[in-house]
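Below is how a single chain appears once it has passed through the pipeline. First comes the sequence as given, then the structure the pipeline wrote out for it. We keep one example in the README because the format questions we get most often are answered faster by looking than by reading.
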Amino acid sequence: METKKKLGFKEKFSYGLGAVGKDMVYMLSASYILYYFQDTLGVSAAAMAVILLAARIFDAFNDPIMGLIVAKTKTKMGKFRPWLLIGTITNAVILFLMFAAPPALNGAGLVAYAAITYILWGVTYTMMDIPYWSMIPAFTEGGKEREGLTTLARSCAGVGSALISVVTMISVKAIGKAVAGTGALDKQIEMTGFKWFTAIIAVLFILFIVITVINVKEESTVDMKSASVKDMFKALLHNDQAITVVISIVLINCSIYLTSNLVIYFFKYDFGGSDWQNAYTLFTTFGGGIQILAIMLLYPLLRNALKLSNIQIFYTALSSAIIGYVVLLVLAFTKMSNVILLFIPGFFIFAANGVLSTLTTVFLANTCDYGLVKNGRSDESVIFSMQTFVVKLASGVSVFIAGIVLQIFQLKKDTADVVSGFDYSTAVPESSKIGLRMTMTIIPIIGLFAAILWFKKHYILNDAKLEEINNEIAEKKLK
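Resulting structure:
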C-alpha cells in the first residue's frame, strides 16, 4: 500500500469538527437527560438512576460488537465512513425523540419511553463513535501525526462539551418561551425548549459529520483490529501502566460527571431565586469558556512555555480541582447570592477538567509505547477502545449516584402549576440542600484524592522513561 500523504488543514479541521458535533450530542445526553426526565417530566429519580446505569453498562459492552461489525464492513467508501454516516443520522433522530417525549405519556409509559429511547441512543451513538476513532489509522501515518490528530480530536471534543454546557439552559428557556409563549407554565416551557434546542443540535451534528465524511478520505483496504471485552482486559493484565491510567480515568470521570449532573439542581433548588436559570447559564458560560481556554492555551502554556512535565501538570490539575471543590463547599454553606463568587471555584474545576481531558489521552498513548517495549505489542486499538469503555461506565456510575441522591433528598417540585419566575429554593427543606452540597463536593474530593494517590504509586512513565522507551523502539526499527 502506498504511503499516505501528510494531512492538510482541511482534513484536520474536518475531523476536529466531527469531534465537536459528536461531543455536543454526548454532553447534551450525559448532562441533561436525568434533569429532563426526572425534574421536567416527573419520572422517579430512582427509576432514572437504574435506567441510565443499566443502559450505560449495556452500551459499554456493546462497543466491541460494533467494532467487529465495522471491521468486517467492505464498501467503496471504506469500512468506517458508511457507519459514521449511518450512526450519526440515526443517533440524531433518536436524540430528538428522546428529548421530545409525548405530553400525554405518564407513569409506566413515560418510564418505558425513557428506557427505550436512551438505550437506542446509546446503541446508535456507539454505531458512529467506534468508526470515528477507529478510522484514524486509515488516513494518517503512524507516530507523531497520529498522536497529534488524536490529541486534536480529543481537544475538539472538549470544546463541543463545553459549548453545550454554555448554551443549553439559556437556549431552552429562550426557545421555550418563544414557542410556548411567555405566559406558559415552567414545565411546558422546558419541554418545548428542550425539544427544539435538541433539534438544532441534531442538525448541526449531522452537518459536522457530513463535512468529516466528505473531506476525510480513508484507505478502504486498511485493516481494523476489533477488541472484544476479553481482549481489553487481557491487554490490561499485560500492561500495568495501562491499568494505572484506566483506573485514574474512572476515578476522575466519576468525580467530575457527578458534579455535572447535580450542579443544575444546586442552582435551581439551593442557590435559587426566580432568575436561577440565568445564574446557571452565566456560571456554565464562564466554566465552558475556561475549559476551552484550558484545552487550547493553558495546557500548551504549562507544557511548552513553563516546561512542566505531563505528570507535574496532571498533579497540578487534580490539586486545582480539589481546591475548587473545597471552595465550592465553603461558599455553598454561606448566604452568598452573587453567582460571580462561584466563578472562583468554577475556575479551578473547569480549568482542571480541560487539562485532564487532554492529559488522559496522552497518558494512554504512552502506555501503548510502553507495552510495545515490554510485551512486543502496543495494543493501541484495544487500549483506546478501553478509554471509551471506561468513560461510559464512569458516566453510568456517576448518574446512578446522582439519581439515588435526588431520590433520597427529594429534590423535586411538581411544575404542573408553576409559572415562570417561581423560586424553587423555597420548595425543598434545608436538609435536602445540605445533602446536595455535600454529595456534589465531598464525593468528588475523595475521588480525586484517590486518583492522585493511585497514580503517584503506580505510574512510572516520566519524561526520562519515555525517552528511554522511544530510543529503544527506534533502535528496533533500525534492525
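The radius of gyration is 22 Å.

See the next section for the split statistics.
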